[in-house]
Design brief:
By secondary structure, the chain is α/β, with parallel strands linked by helices. It is built from 14 helices and 20 strands. It has helices spanning 4-7, 11-14, 18-39, 41-50, 60-63, 71-77, 116-132, 154-163, 175-185, 194-208, 212-215, 232-242, 356-364, 400-415; strands at residues 96-101, 111-115, 140-143, 166-169, 189-192, 220-223, 245-252, 256-260, 268-271, 276-281, 296-302, 313-319, 334-336, 341-342, 347-349, 352-354, 369-380, 383-392, 420-425, 439-441. Helix 3 (18-39) packs across helix 4 and helix 12 (232-242) crosses helix 13 (356-364). It is globular, with a radius of gyration of 22 Å. The protein starts with a helix and ends in a 5-residue tail after the last strand. Bound molecules: zinc ion (ZN).
Length: 446
């Protein structure tokens, strides 16, 4: 039988009773707040203006009174002294060893400095993720990602090394070369965005005649960067294509690697509550939501990140607590279904609240359709118009009407909206290498 030492990366922390865990979180919050207060002009000003001091922090309720930091505030101070990070920086520039930046999909990128201590913390947080997903020192992990200014799987690489895995950096190789290398080396695990996991399988089959489920030795895949691995229909497609377990992880450049799905695949992700404090806030009232199943905005703190701290960061991610406890034995709380949306993405169409992930769930649950799809929202006169392009697989050409009926019905049930649906030949919609842009809201432009 597995002992706790075999099951958990940090058996003590991951199974700490809730009361002790919360006590630890309050103390760690006070410590990082004091660090920022003493070392960053930005934070000192923010807290002084709000009239809160680190010494005031004694309970979770006290924490909820600490001002939040928004991405726009980070953008405003960057490129100023100390260049290029500005006065959120808590260490002398010479202690910075890592530069990363956000991808800038929602505006000007944010620069993120880390010290070597921070970088070790990144690797440690990834070690929790990978250990919980069954990675061990016997694994050979192939990482098919362009090592560059984006953090993406950099820390996954170091986390896997920390566990003792053998890591193969698949940097500048193209997709075909990566697949052949995985095959040659009999790699047992890999990490990529859901878009690329599906894209690699497609390339393997179409261009190399390789069936990843049969001809490769990949047993587990860690996803990040997009919600797909928490969308049941997309997860199923990936698992079938690769004959492997697919696990989700959510992290961010300016936050860290804060959550992970464990081997139980409980329909949600554990928040790493030993390293982070996640609070869910009602977007309208600002109150903290404790009750499961009620979505709200994530406000997050990284306890141990020192160069450019992440304290009460308003992430704009929409999440909710899970009703269930995970059978794996971790006491770290689960968020249900991963990040269910972005405060920026969830949009009203024809007066109905729409989360783009709901469309993905419908499209990918229909086996006659390809992996790709494209949604465009426009305005025709005063009314919103929503169009959906999907690819019909060649073998389903003669069942077009039947597939259309299922699609219309499922979209109505899951999203309460009517779409202008068009079928396109398999392979004709754009393919994305890393993060996909399948949802376009053109109303905001005009
Ligand atoms: Zn679990």
């Amino acid at each position: 039988m597995l002992t706790n030492a075999d099951k958990f990366w940090n058996p003590l922390l991951e199974t700490l009773p809730r009361e002790k865990l919360q006590d630890l979180q309050v103390r760690k919050f006070r410590r990082i707040m004091a660090w920022a207060y003493e070392n960053s002009k930005f934070h000192r000003k923010l807290y002084k203006e709000a009239g809160v001091q680190p010494a005031d922090i004694k309970t979770m309720e006290d924490i909820a009174q600490v001002p939040k930091v928004e991405k726009s505030m980070m953008r405003n101070i960057q490129k100023k002294e100390p260049y290029p990070y500005g006065d959120m920086l808590c260490v002398p520039l010479e202690r910075v060893t890592e530069f990363r930046q956000t991808s800038g999909t929602t505006g000007q990128p944010v620069y993120q400095p880390d010290t070597w201590q921070d970088w070790e913390w990144w690797a440690e947080s990834w070690a929790y993720i990978l250990y919980a997903q069954g990675y061990r020192s016997t694994d050979r992990v192939f990482i098919p990602f362009g090592y560059n200014i984006f953090v993406a799987f950099w820390a996954g690489h170091y986390g896997a090394e920390k566990l003792g895995c053998e890591v193969v950096p698949g940097g500048v190789l193209n997709t075909e070369a990566r697949i052949l290398k995985m095959q040659e080396l009999r790699a047992t695990a890999t990490m990529a965005t859901p878009t690329y996991v599906l894209g690699m399988a497609d390339t393997a089959r179409r261009k190399l005649g390789i069936d990843p489920a049969k001809d490769l030795n990949i047993q587990k895949i860690t996803c990040a960067g997009e919600p797909g691995a928490s969308i049941p229909a997309t997860k199923r497609r990936m698992e079938e294509a690769w004959g492997a377990k697919v696990y989700d992880h959510i992290g961010a450049t300016e936050i860290g690697a804060w959550s992970y799905e464990c081997m139980e695949q409980p329909g949600g992700l554990h928040v790493n509550e030993g390293l982070f404090l996640v609070q869910i806030e009602d977007p309208e009232t600002g109150e903290i939501i404790e009750e499961p199943g009620k979505p709200g905005k994530m406000v997050i703190t990284a306890f141990d990140r020192i160069a450019q701290p992440c304290i009460r960061f308003d992430s704009k991610d929409i999440i909710m607590w899970h009703e269930e406890q995970c059978p794996c034995g971790r006491t770290f709380r689960l968020i249900k279904g991963g990040v269910v949306g972005r405060a920026d993405d969830i949009t009203k169409v024809k007066g109905v609240l729409l989360a783009p992930t709901a469309i993905e769930e419908v499209v990918r649950a229909i086996p006659e359709l390809g992996d790709e799809y494209e949604v465009t929202v426009t305005k025709k006169g005063d009314t919103d118009d929503i169009s959906l392009k999907v690819e019909l697989l060649p073998e389903a050409e003669n069942r077009k009407d039947e597939v259309m009926a299922i699609l219309v019905d499922q979209l109505r049930v899951k999203t309460n909206l009517r779409y202008n649906i068009s079928f396109h030949p398999y392979g004709s919609l754009p393919r994305y290498d890393v993060k996909a842009k399948r949802f376009k809201d053109l109303r905001k432009i005009h």
